[in-house]
Design goal:
about 50 residues, about 30% helix, two-stranded antiparallel sheet, 2 strands
Length: about 50
């Protein structure tokens, strides 16, 4: 199956995913950020543990 076919097939089962990030010692949803803060969040380097 192609990606579009899968998305159409399971469209009724999909839900919104809220992404949280740690800001100033507490967690906040990224969707509540202003435009500038969202840009900063996209540019952050994400570390992966080996």
């Amino acid at each position: 199956m192609k990606r579009d076919e899968i998305l159409k097939k399971y469209a009724d089962k999909r839900t919104k995913c809220v992404v949280y990030t740690r800001v100033m010692g507490y967690h906040r949803p990224v969707e509540s950020f202003n435009l500038g803060k969202k840009g900063e969040h996209k540019e952050r380097v994400k570390f992966v543990e080996c």
